[in-house]
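Box S2. Input/output pair 1.
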Amino acid sequence: MSDFRARCARLRLLVLDVDGVLTDGRLLFDAEGQESKGFHVRDGHGIRLLQDCGIEVALITARYSQALAHRARDLGIQRVYQGSVDKIVAYTELLFATNLGDEEVAYMGDDLIDLAILSRVGLAAAPADAHPEVLARAHWVAQRNGGMGAVRELSEEILRAQGHWDTIVARALGQA
């Protein structure tokens, strides 16, 4: 079994950064200063597939966004840590709340603020356009950029490694 597959086999939780991972990293404001974000539907579907297979998904972000709160509710993500400038504090709280160890967690981040968590988790992942320091430390790097399907790509890899993918495809074909 490859190192990547072995890391995936232990996973019970995927934690995601938001800006630069679930979004393309751009901050969009209207004339009144209201922020909006664009989320890729395929990333959302990948999150749902993980949840359906018993892998919880959580979000940790340094910013606060009402748009993110809406998207998290839409996807059924209950563990959302917004305004977490010191992300390792939120991550430690998350481990305590879930009673999981580092080796059972995957984290996808894209910038320097994510390095502390990436250095601890069982599977450190990054979108293709992540900062070079993040790319150098990731166990796995997506072919797609943040906000453009990188989370879906990671979701599928985890599901394949855990043996769920064939069942998912068979269900989609109406064969399961």
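Box S3. Input/output pair 2.
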Amino acid sequence: MRLCVDARTTFARHPRGTGKNLVDLYGEIAKVRPDWRFVMFHRGRNGKNPFEGCANISDQGIDIKGDRFGLWSNLRLPLAVRAAKADLFHAPANIGPRFPGAPMVATIHDLIPLEPALATPDSARWGEAVRRTAHKASKIFTPSEYSKLKIVEFCAIAESKVVVNPWAPDRKCKRIEDAAQLAAVREKYGVACDSPYVFGFGSDMPRKNTEKVIRAWAEVPASLRDQRHLVLVGIREPALGKFRALAEALGVGESCRLHGFADEADIAALLSGAAVLVFPSLSEGFGLPLLDAFICGAAVLTSDCTSLPEVAGDAAVLVDPRRTEAIADGLRQLLSDEGLRRDLVARGFERVKAYTWEACAQRVLGVFESVAG
């Protein structure tokens, strides 16, 4: 079988969850189905080919001049799929072409842009494109039961059309125990070797709740903040400057280490060295950082809403992400109770065993084969 994929997220300069997941997923699928051929379409590489070493995966950069009105997605990509004589097309990032050029399976991660508190002027148009994709696709993957219920209701489609397929931890994310590697990462991100720290993935996106995390850190008792740091990565300018100014204004500038995008190679060490992962997102379709924290042995604080309790199970402290004081209280609990942290770490190690790329790939293969016949 020949399968084509819209792989723009994977070849982006800073691949996030979707882009990184495709590497792990298709690496596993390519190994299990060596006689299949996979073509990853993108708009140009921004670095090394992430599928290097997979003999049956090729990548192809395609572009179009004057890309307006979604011409790349709705014209250039379908023409390439048709020219490749694809048996199947996978649209992995919520929206697929109007006429995909082959039977289409779509992955719709979530409907977060449609939530009233997070909506933008483009949300309605985006929602219509997602609804169209849901009706055009033969099958839909989504990573959580929470997202499935939202998709079925919004798109008015049969529940049987949507397959819940949870992700697994990033294959590159392993628990780091080498003292020298941990010390090097601490130095790089401004944390003293003898200083415990709370780690989080910050963002300029409001739903990631970076401002409330900083405000909550300021409300943690000073006795618990002493000799500790809050380390947040992934914050782009101008938000980075704004959040640094906020930390200074709250009197916690010295204990906050706020950074832009972290090198992918540093994430496992940052998580492995952390006492706590703080992840009180306002909305998530899944919540991959929780699995990575479980793998690396960090105790987890996360939200009590959307998909996050589904992923966390009993292996995290759950808080109301809309209340600064709730986040602060959760941090206080975790920083003051070493026994609680140890218990959550042990629960996390067990919890993450349920999420594997082998199982994820088998569910995908079953759907692909049924759709392609």
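Caption for Box S3: The chain has two domains: 2-168+356-372, 179-354. Residues 2-168+356-372 form a domain with the Rossmann fold fold (CATH 3.40.50.2000).
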